[in-house]
Design brief:
The complex is a heterodimer of chains A (271) and B (101). Chain A has 271 residues and is mostly helical. Chain A has twelve helices and three strands. Chain A has a domain of 92 residues. In chain A, a hairpin with a 5-residue loop joins strand 1 and strand 2. Chain B is built from four helices and four strands; from the N terminus they run αβαβαββα. The longest helix of chain B is centred in the C-terminal third of the chain and has 19 residues. Classes of the chains: A mainly alpha (271), B alpha+beta (101). The interface between A and B is large, with 38 and 55 residues. Strand 3 of chain A pairs antiparallel with strand 3 of chain B, so a sheet runs across the interface.
């Protein structure tokens, strides 16, 4: 208000009558106050993710850390947060249909549904995600989530969806991540020789066609190479590849220093 | 896990046997503290984190991951725990003894 008064006063001061007359004819536009803007879909997605992360971390760090009996813990686990956010993500996906935000929101819903072992709902959400957003760049993490979903839906369903994603996605990151997961699934424990051979082809495809695509850490190519290294060398009956490491006192040693002894190699941590 | 490993190491302290921990908790000083607190006497490789160089090279996807290697350096068992680990190690030690005769 103050500003309006001041501006009006300025006009009068500058003010020939002509100006005053003009002002009378065309009323000065009301000063523009930024209208309260509805947050964009992206902003709402970010806020929703943040709200969910807060709820989850406070649950695990506060509630879960308390002393309690096993029964109480089971009961508490059943009440862990997450599912209540699924309808919100889904609503956002419907509203922003066709956008990357919709894809990202639905991906969150899918991840939650997998985590809560909701087989049917996860299946429906996945269908919608692939129907409406298969070309989105947001789907890089979908393949690794599908590995969790595989326990509920079976390998065939998952590999079919991944092959579709591989075919339709225009994004190298999504393709590379899909090839990696396909290789991992086919070369998983208890895989038949045929499956192993097929899985290797996916890894090799990834290595030759997408050698520079960045993963979370390093490149997808490096991850695939480590898988192949493990397939080739880290099998029962194979010579264990030698390594040199540093112990807790700063002394270097090699696995081969232990030749002549039976050795248990235990990858562990207390975190 | 730890109580079992402690007793395994104790039981076989005079045998040609070694338990090597590939630790992913962090830098050496942190690990030394954990070792002291938990009465861990066996040797550790400081791998730094779950994405440490050896865990990455050996493509470790879950913790713990266990390999049992014989006296010739051949991988003979994977992911054996508790009693199964005892059995695996005892089998390989017996094999080694028989070969030496």
């Amino acid at each position: 208000m103050n500003q309006i008064l001041r501006r009006a006063a300025g006009l009068v001061l500058a003010g020939a009558c002509a100006l005053a007359a003009a002002a009378a004819q065309t009323p000065a536009p009301a000063p523009q106050r930024p209208a309260p803007q509805r947050p964009t879909a992206q902003e709402r997605l970010d806020a929703l993710v943040e709200r969910m992360e807060k709820a989850t971390s406070s649950f695990w760090e506060v509630e879960w850390a308390k002393e309690m009996s096993d029964e109480e813990r089971m009961a508490l686990y059943a009440k862990r947060p997450g599912m209540e956010f699924v309808p919100e993500f889904e609503a956002l996906a419907v509203e922003a249909k066709g956008s990357d935000v919709a894809a990202a929101a639905r991906l969150q819903a899918f991840s939650l549904l997998c985590g809560f072992q909701k087989r049917t709902e996860a299946g429906t959400t996945l269908e919608k995600l692939l129907d409406e957003s298969i070309e989105s760049k947001e789907l890089e993490d979908l393949p690794s989530m599908m590995q969790g979903y595989m326990g509920m839906a079976g390998q065939e369903r998952v590999t079919n969806s991944l092959e579709l994603l591989l075919e339709k996605s225009p994004h190298d990151k999504v393709k590379a991540s899909t090839l990696l997961t396909l290789g991992q699934i086919l070369c998983g424990r208890n895989a038949s020789e045929t499956q192993m051979a097929e899985g290797r082809k996916y890894f090799e495809w990834l290595i030759t066609e997408f050698p520079t695509v960045k993963a979370r850490k390093g490149t997808y190519k490096e991850v695939a190479e480590n898988f192949l290294f493990a397939l080739d060398n880290l099998q029962v009956g194979k010579q264990a590849p030698d390594f040199e490491v540093t112990d807790e006192n700063g002394t270097k040693f090699k696995l081969s220093d232990y030749r002549g002894k039976v050795v248990v190699i235990d990858f562990w941590g207390m975190w | 896990m730890l109580p079992h490993e402690r007793s395994l190491v104790k039981r076989l302290e005079k045998e040609p046997f070694a338990l090597l921990g590939i630790n992913s908790d962090g830098p050496a000083d942190k690990v030394r503290k954990l070792l002291a607190e938990n009465e861990i006497t066996w040797r550790q490789a400081i791998d730094g984190s779950t994405s440490g160089p050896l865990a990455t090279r050996w493509n470790v996807q879950g913790w713990p991951t266990i390999y049992v290697v014989d006296a010739q350096g051949v991988i003979r068992y994977r992911d054996v725990r508790e009693e199964a680990m005892d059995k695996a190690v005892d089998t390989l030690l017996a094999e080694l003894k028989a070969a030496k005769k």
